[in-house]
Amino acid sequence: MSKVVFANVKEYEQQQVTEAVKQMFEQLGGLKSFVKEGSKVFLKLNLVREMSADKAATTHPTVVNAVASLLQQECNATVVVGDSCGGLYTPAVMNSVYRGCGLKEGEKQGLYTLNQDFSSTSTPIGGKVLGSVEIINAFLNADCVINLAKLKTHSFTGYSGAAKNLFGLIPGLVKVEMHATHPQLDDFCDLLCDVADFAQSKIVLHLIDAIVGMEGPGPTNGTPKHIGKLFCGTNPYHVDVCAVTLFDEPAKMPLLQKAIQRDSLSQEFSEIDCDLSSLKADYIADYKRVQVSNDAAFLHLPAWIRFLAEKFLTQKVKMRKRRCKKCKKCEIHCPAKAIEMGKKKAIVDHKKCIRCFCCQELCPFDAVEIKESLLLKTTRWLSSTKTSKKRPK
Ligand code: SF4
Ligand code: SF4
Fold first, then answer.
1. Distance (Å) from CA 249 to ligand 2 centroid
2. 382-to-278, 297, 376, 386 alpha-carbon distances in Å
3. pLDDT for 93-117, tens place per residue?
4. Is the pLDDT of residue 386 over 70?
5. With respect to CATH, is domain 2-281 assigned 3.40.250.10?
6. Which of 218, 313, 324, 367 is the most buried (most CB within 10 A)?
7. pTM of the model
8. How confident is the model at residue 193, as a pLDDT?
9. For the domain bounded by 295-386, which CATH number is listed?
10. Mutate to test the pocket of ligand 1, among 328, 337, 344 (most ligand atoms within 8 A of CB)
11. Omega before 217 cis (within 30°)?
């Protein structure tokens, strides 16, 4: 059994958050049972891009401050804070991300150091689809790691929580390469599980910041949604199951389905020691979920059905002319090289697009829209009225 605990927290008020985090750590056996005295601890945040904390796309600074101050007080730890964001992993980019995400203040207060080592090492991880991959040295050089994720919807994977957050252990544009070489969602989820399983050797705790999460077209273009909870445990899939229970059926999420297929998680979640019934009682029926389109589902269909399905039952990215500033960020990061600058806006070649939605995640001007055909919308509406508004049993 692995224990997952959660705390109800109304708002990002420092004292409330610190008290809640402290109580969760105590319920899990105390911070000292996970972190040795004097350790160098890396806090792996979700810093997808430069966005202020109130947009609910990144780990909130009060949560970071709470964990860092407890590590200092209780374990005399040296705390380093960081992530590899969705774009380039360079001092200029990452320092502007730190600033934009409100993390400079905690460093000024002496709670932690913001990571300035932007190197990485090719690391054997012995995964199913990834034998070895570049991993950021901030992670590799730490004595232990605490994963501080954010609860969000995600246009490609359905949701982003503890396990998905670990994709950020892969530096900058290597992530783009990973999308290009693993374009199918099913394969990509295997890759995410490979990284999460490898990282587990060093990660002592996974905490999800869901005081305010994101709903709608996440992970960056959605809207903040008050959830009022923090989750913590030692296993990323278990913590994710508990968090997702608040707004959807965990077994429907592609990443958790994949963890079940790989025997990293049981179908019944029987190994999770958590009060799931109390989470189900708090089920948020009106949460705006993301329906993922799993192109792999079409692979075994006859060619003509596949053609129609891909044409009428998949999502398409479209750049909004009025918002696009032709900054080229999407063009640089598109793993399929499907974007080029047109006269008035970025243009997508839909034949090349692999629907990874990196362009939507990274566009600083919210210019990327995900469009669904009428047929897809109707199909979703029919299935959502049948299932997703229901409180899970
Ligand atoms: S869509 Fe966004 S990221 Fe791409 S060029 Fe336009 S403004 Fe830049
Ligand atoms: S156009 Fe956007 S969604 Fe399509 S492959 Fe490029 S980055 Fe991914």
1. 28
2. 29, 19, 10, 6
3. 999 999 999 999 999 999 999 999 9
4. no
5. no
6. 218
7. 0.88
8. 98
9. 3.30.70.20
10. 328
11. no
